[in-house]
Amino acid sequence: MQRRAWTPAQSAADWIEDRSPWDASASTHAGKEVGRSSSLALPAVYYCVSLIADSIAALPVDVYEGTGRNRKAAQAPSWVRSPNAFMTAFDFWHRVCTSLLMDGNAFILTLRNGAGDVVSLLPLDPRMVTIQVAPDGSDVTFLTMGQTLDRSQMLWIPGYTVPGMARGVSPLDLARQAVGLGQVAEEFGARFFGQGTALSGVITHPGMPNPDQAAILAKMFRRNHAGTRNSHAVGILTGGAQWQSISPTPEQSQFLETRRFQKTEIALMYRVPAHLVDPTVTSSWGSGVEEQNKWFIDQTLTPWLVRIEQAVSTFLLPGGRYMKFNLDSRLRAKTSERYASYAVGIQNGFMNADQVAELEDWEPLPDRLGARYYRPANLIAVSHEDKAEATTKEDAGTEGDPNSIE
Predict the structure, then answer these.
(1) Which structural domain, as residue segments, surrounds residue 218?
(2) What is each CA distance from 258 to 31, 184, 191, 194, in whole angstroms?
(3) Does 405 fall in a domain?
(4) Do 231 and 317 lie in a common domain?
(5) In this model, does residue 85 exceed pLDDT 80?
(6) Quick check: pTM over 0.85?
(7) Are strands 25-27 and 33-35 parallel, antiparallel or unpaired?
(8) Are the C-beta atoms of residues 65 and 72 closer than 8 Å to each other?
(9) Are 138 and 294 in contact (CB under 8 A)?
């Protein structure tokens, strides 16, 4: 694919303007309209989205070239550390992940210089972009702000996709009913405690009050007993009038159970362990925090990481280079377990002290002392000179150094 320089007709402010990008909404059977902004107002949705987006955005990004034993670290382009003039790397990846988690697609405007190298990346509001598939299905273009862009000008990362559809499917669109039910349950709870629902009912009167008298009696009772401040006030009815409660209690309407169930459903929607969203849920996965953290990485984060890594490596990085999010910090074990694993690595010759220092964010040993590897026998240094000396002894018919490595 030809990668050419391109300057947008609009300014950067036109592509990243201060407005709500999630205005569109659709009604649900529960009677609530579910849109992007209203969904984020539901704590369970906000928690799941922010948990995944923050976890990914906080990961270091490494660039490599080669595979297997030939793999080595490559120089990362400048946009890996500073994607654009507006955002830090954390902010950039957080926006990309939020777009994927809420819309099911991430669209990143790619600005290049005259040599075709990427100089800036701008994440766009996904609702600004329309995908146009070529008649023969060989390629796609993107229509946005009145311009048609190709893959060299727009990086597109789809989320969950289904056959026959180019655009990724929004998790919130798929689970709109569950989100709407959660919003209704939250509103019911707010009204229950805010309007004194526990005192709702009817006032029965032995006489025949006219409409005006009935309205006055209801108004006086509401003024003295409605709301949280009056929830425990003593009620006094005169003239033989009686209060008859007709509203169900939260337990009767299973209000608390409904709210807990909706938290679990939304957690399942994003494959977030339910115990992370609802503290009352007991985790049955793994015997410790480390195993639960590994489950979260493998089942929740990894699919999103692979989508991003493959898209960026395929369309942005030149010369067979590829990017990887570094998960080492998320997989850190307890201090004693880490030190034990380092000891095994050093004693068996596949780690050195400088590598341990890098993993622990320590300064390396001076004079490259930490760059040496050691072998198990007596823990002496491994070097080419040792091998050469052992070979010479064997050629001379003498017994070689028992500590040498063949």
Answers:
(1) 201-246
(2) 16, 10, 16, 19
(3) no
(4) no
(5) yes
(6) no
(7) antiparallel
(8) yes
(9) no
